[in-house]
């Protein structure tokens, strides 16, 4: 599917344009603030091959795409009119608390600026490593010039955060940047360096505390949030003829003063409080800190809450010049990679092996969403293995005091940034993380048993009846995603009993948490989806009993599940069972038997998929 087609389908399946308050993206996810979350069609979203996973967390819908998320956001933003939205009107349907707004901003604000801070952080880390090895001196002009390249982003980080936050809060970007310039104006920075005064007196009586805002993020986030409300309030009160000139004038004056007097100082203290809290945890026990942070990190990435650690890490850099959280993030990424790599020894089909390899490579490069959503959510024990590996490795490096001196994407390529006093412990931590998670996942996840009842012919897969009921052509299914064969080709059935059997011999690769769908992969790599009912994901498993587990071998005689037809009828859900091949690229053609009339028994051959020659 084209990127624009995927964007259209996403919009249609989250309630349409009118249900979307705002949309943005981070490194791997499209994120939406919606008016009505009940309009989300998880079923259809999860069936889109471009979508890795869908989560609703912290008052936002998160659609995991991968590292090419920007390619989908561009047409999506055009369809939503985001790039032309300059009126900055807050949608009346958006009612969120300050905590949710802050979490939304934290997750959305760092996505666009990660390339800048990651690139600058890598340069900073490499230079620190070279200095530690005495290859270069930090007194030379060369070092100073390169350090300007690396440190500029972090020194003036409030400018970058202001621009991103303005998009999230739908306010004027340039006014937001102006406020960032205000708190970092030379008058303020010079006063901090001189150390002569602790505050300015505005109008002779109103104190403006003197703080170093370089590298901070929390003060400017709240400042831009305040600006968004002030801008809308002023714009609403003023006559239209005066808005062009006086709306930005009053907005900058009021928001700027509020930031200098109240928001900035509170933000500084809040940032210090968060950083001190983490430091306190390390003071109590570095090992305990490693265990806790290491255990939290994988689930935080899965739920999209991992960005909450970013402002704390950045505050640590601003306060003390180094951070001990990011090395733990590094360990978590390596643990996720190790557990994912272990699954390669467990899967059978070439398609799954390809997914595992690409996900593991992506994890090594610091992007773990494909591994988490594409592999570890299917193999829960492997996820547990990754969490254990992350905790143990994080506790190890924390005990030895491993730290990093610049914000760097936690990938294998960031290792040179650890060169110095703690380098050997960082390397050992990586080895522990990768090895332990791999071994645990290998031991905990069972290898599928060899399928005894192989398909009749090596070059084809026979799709058999899955229930006692009536055959239904896929074109007659009351769901366009299936009837138009967007997901793949196959057939459907109306069941008399609700019992659902396997249509093929193979290995259970997916059992959806909502129990309404099961995925099977045959020995020759054909992926089959058995979808029980239409729009039944909203039932959250009610009315379904599943009798198989992931990794289990099945044949056409294996009962997969049972549907409570009376319960489905009560909820007015269509109980049609749909069977489709989802990787049609491996199929040369599908041959159907003669049209089948009347009731059919489980095991009847309906279709034959002739495999493409590789």
The biggest beta sheet is recorded as: 8 strands, antiparallel
Class from helix and strand fractions: alpha+beta
Q: Strands of the biggest beta sheet: in what spatial order? A: 15-11-12-13-17-9-8-19
Output mean pLDDT. 82
β-strand percent reads 15-25%
Total number of strands: 20
Shape: globular
Radius of gyration: 28 Å
Question: Count of helices?
Answer: 19
Give the low-confidence spans. 84-95, 450-458
N-to-C CA distance: 23 Å
The level of helicity is: 40-55%
Task: Describe the protein.
The protein contains 19 helices and 20 strands. With 614 residues, the protein is α+β, with helices and mostly antiparallel strands. Strand 11 (506-511) and strand 12 form a beta hairpin. It is globular. Residues 84-95 and 450-458 have low confidence and may be disordered.
């Amino acid at each position: 599917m084209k990127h624009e087609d995927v964007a259209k389908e996403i919009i249609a399946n989250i309630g349409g344009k009118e249900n979307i308050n705002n949309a943005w993206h981070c490194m791997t996810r499209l994120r939406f603030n919606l008016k009505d979350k009940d309009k989300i069609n998880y079923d259809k979203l999860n069936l889109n091959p471009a979508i890795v996973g869908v989560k609703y967390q912290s008052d936002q819908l998160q659609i995991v795409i991968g590292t090419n998320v920007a390619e989908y956001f561009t047409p999506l933003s055009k369809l939503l009119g985001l790039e032309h939205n300059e009126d900055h009107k807050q949608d009346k349907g958006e009612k969120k608390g300050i905590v949710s707004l802050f979490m939304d901003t934290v997750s959305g604000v760092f996505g666009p600026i990660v390339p800048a801070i990651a690139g600058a952080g890598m340069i900073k880390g490499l230079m620190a490593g070279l200095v530690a090895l005495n290859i270069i001196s930090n007194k030379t002009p060369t070092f100073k010039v390169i350090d300007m390249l690396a440190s500029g982003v972090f020194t003036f980080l409030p400018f970058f955060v202001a621009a991103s936050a303005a998009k999230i809060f739908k306010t004027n970007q340039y006014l937001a940047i102006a406020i960032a310039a205000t708190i970092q104006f030379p008058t303020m920075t010079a006063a901090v360096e001189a150390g002569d005064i602790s505050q300015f007196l505005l109008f002779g009586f109103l104190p403006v505390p003197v703080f170093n805002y370089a590298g901070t993020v929390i003060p400017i986030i709240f400042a831009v949030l305040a600006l968004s409300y002030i801008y809308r309030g002023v714009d609403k009160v003023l006559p239209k003829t005066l808005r062009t000139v006086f709306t930005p004038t009053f907005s900058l004056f009021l928001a700027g003063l509020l930031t200098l007097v109240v928001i900035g100082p509170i933000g500084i203290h809040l940032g210090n409080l968060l950083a001190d809290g983490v430091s306190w945890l390390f003071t109590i026990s570095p090992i305990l800190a490693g265990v806790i942070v290491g255990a939290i990190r994988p689930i935080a990435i899965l739920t999209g809450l991992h960005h909450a650690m970013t402002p704390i890490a950045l505050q640590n850099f601003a306060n003390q010049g180094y951070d001990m959280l990011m090395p733990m993030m590094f360990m978590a990424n390596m643990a996720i990679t190790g557990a994912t790599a272990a699954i390669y020894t467990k899967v059978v089909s070439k398609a799954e092996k390809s997914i595992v390899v690409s996900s593991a490579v992506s994890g090594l490069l610091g992007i773990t969403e494909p591994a988490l959503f594409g592999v570890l959510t299917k193999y829960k024990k492997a996820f547990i293995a990754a969490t254990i590996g992350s905790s143990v490795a994080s506790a190890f490096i924390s005990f030895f005091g491993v730290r990093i001196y610049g914000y760097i994407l936690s990938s294998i390529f960031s290792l040179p940034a650890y060169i110095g006093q703690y380098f050997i412990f960082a390397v050992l931590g990586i080895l522990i993380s990768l090895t332990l998670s791999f071994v645990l996942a290998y031991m905990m996840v069972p290898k599928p048993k060899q399928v005894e009842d192989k398909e009749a012919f090596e070059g084809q897969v026979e799709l058999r009846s899955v229930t006692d009921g009536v055959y239904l052509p896929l074109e007659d299914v009351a769901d366009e995603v299936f009837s138009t064969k967007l997901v793949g080709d196959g057939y459907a059935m109306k069941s008399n009993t609700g019992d659902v059997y396997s249509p093929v011999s193979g290995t259970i690769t997916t059992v959806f948490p909502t129990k309404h769908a099961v995925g099977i992969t045959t020995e020759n790599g054909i992926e089959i989806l058995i979808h029980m009912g239409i729009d039944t994901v909203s039932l959250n498993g009610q009315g379904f009993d599943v009798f198989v587990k992931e990794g289990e071998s099945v044949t056409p005689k294996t009962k997969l599940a049972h549907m409570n037809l009376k319960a489905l009828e009560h909820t007015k859900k269509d109980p049609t069972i749909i069977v489709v091949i989802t990787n049609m690229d491996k199929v040369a053609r599908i041959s159907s038997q003669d049209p089948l009339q009347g009731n059919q028994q489980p095991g009847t051959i309906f279709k034959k998929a002739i495999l493409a020659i590789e």
